[in-house]
Fold each of these.
Amino acid sequence: MNALKNTVKAVLPSGMLNYGRKIRDKSQLSSLQALSFKEQNLRSLDKTTIDEILNDTHSHEAWDETRNAIAAIFGDSDKYGGVNPGDRQALYKLLHGIKPQSVLEVGTHIGASTLYIARALKAQNPSAKVTTVDILDVNAPDGPWQSVGLDHTPKQFAEKLDCANQIEFVKSPCVNYMRSTEQKFDFVFLDGDHSASSVYQEISAALDILAPGGIILMHDYYPDGQVMYTDGTAITGPYLAVERIKSENETIRVLPLGALPWPTKQGSHMTSLAILTKA
Ligand SMILES: C[S@@+](CC[C@H](N)C(=O)[O-])C[C@H]1O[C@@H](n2cnc3c(N)ncnc32)[C@H](O)[C@@H]1O
């Protein structure tokens, strides 16, 4: 199925793929009934505060150490489908600056982002933890790590990087997990299924388990659903989901991180990371 999808992607022009994705996203999203979005626990943030955190020189040394340690065993390219190296740096620096006690990650895949999250938490507070949820068993012998050609599972990489105690791996559809857990999280990172209908449901569920002053960070938020990189791809799901949420909830806002001080991918400094905040 994946092979067929990849062949279709390789053959069709990106404009046509973007159009098809947008039609599918709009149609699936419009068939969902409205959900509740309890924004009261969301932290109010502005771009200046985010930029200060990203540029904070105090985290540079810890970042360099983590990047070198991870690059030595995991590599530092995005060829395996994890978040790109520039976004890993942004994620690390945000967590270093925000210092959450508990993080929920949706979408473990090969664990690229998970390792940076775990190392950022450990650098601040060894008792802080990340729970990472994936619909697949990411540590299974035939998990995503194996299909992309890595030589270790995410758990094994975490053990090598001395941050396995920071991580709990959960295999579950993420909305089921969020609707059933008793735990509250200070920081939720959404990087799972990026379709509009999934993101709409994920944000509703994430707000319900957010601790006071909590933060929701999204990946693959393309402002206005427009192309951001030279590959011509436009991922529309997170943007369309947030547009609907904003139209139904006047106080919810989105803060795209925009251009980062360092490169992200395809020769760009642009990131698709965006923070959900409130007015
Ligand atoms: C883009 S990848 C995540 C990349 C990862 N953050 C990294 O840096 O390695 C998306 C992941 O979300 C998972 N996923 C898709 N739909 C999901 C769902 N409904 N619940 C939980 N995980 C899901 C996929 O199995 C896939 O591993």
Amino acid sequence: MIIKTIVPQIPKFKYVSQKMKDCFDRQYLTNDGQNLLKFERMLQKYFNSKLKPVVFCNGELSLYSLIQAWKFNSNIKNCKAIVPSFTFSGTVNALVQNDIEPIFCDINNSLTLDLKKIKITKDVKFIIGASVYGNIPEINKIKKFAKKNRLIFILDNAPGFCSKINNKFPINFGVDEIYSFHATKIFNSIEGGCAITTNNNIRKLLVAARNFGQLKKGANDVLIPGLNSKMNELSAIVGIQNLKGIKNLVSNRKKVISKYLKFFKELENESKISCMKVNKNVFCSYFFFPIILKSDSVAKFLKYMASKRIYCRRYYTSVHTTTYYKQKIEAQDLKRIPFTEKIKNKIVALPIHSEMTNDQINYFFKNIRNFFK
Ligand SMILES: Cc1ncc(COP(=O)(O)O)c(C=O)c1O
């Protein structure tokens, strides 16, 4: 038996081959092709969003462009942004590439942003939440906090495609957000992503941003210095096909998640591990199932599991510990992020796949139990 870290959701080739062949025959493979436009219409229906999502070639550039559009629209020059360190590096890179200084904030046992510990200075203009493992942070509280402190709130929801809060998506609460459709994600278009906004002007800037800043094909006019980040037709075809199967996928995934929750709750009750706290009103899609070990024994855990052909990973490794960012953070800044510091070497991401068989789940749980004996 083998439990892989990731099992990508790749559609059967027969379901996409004809559509791909049509593109080659038409010799139209990128630049707002008909499949890209259809994919955006389908996503709008899926999200029930007022405005059509703007699809990009990946999640990081979706986030980069959404931040760029807001910064440009609000005529912000030098500024800082509150952002958790406990996220994927892409969240923070998108700020730095926009010439915004990240101010790392702490997380709580939901592993998402902890509002209570944030101190705002005049030059802070953004607050970026991240739905790590698909766990949506408390968006209503962050919205209120952002309003009170005149901050622009953007949600990096890259790993949270099927996640919901009160049975709705963050955009339905007026929160601008982005998703990643990378091949490893629960929903994918090989590479890809989208940004969704409720603001007409921001949407217009996003459409321009992905095409060198040009709003209309061949217009040659630049509205914003955008980076080429268009999605090609082949990715859009895979996205469309995967989106057709999303209901099925979520229903399978829910069954697997409920088994995991029951099993790991027991381990938590025995004080062997801690689990990520998910609020009752959130459906978390669990892009990986994180557990927090009681000691810094992650390497030992990974080695033991690998010896059983169960492939877990260290994820997320807090951004402030990476080579580039650790030069930027001062010792006193670490005092602002005690929970992140406490768990950074104790957290492991366990594999969880939508189509896991009972045999695989039992094998996996048996070996977890053996490790903690
Ligand atoms: C929180 C977060 N932000 C951004 C990204 C970047 O997305 P992409 O890989 O599509 O560029 C990821 C990808 O895993 C992520 O988890």
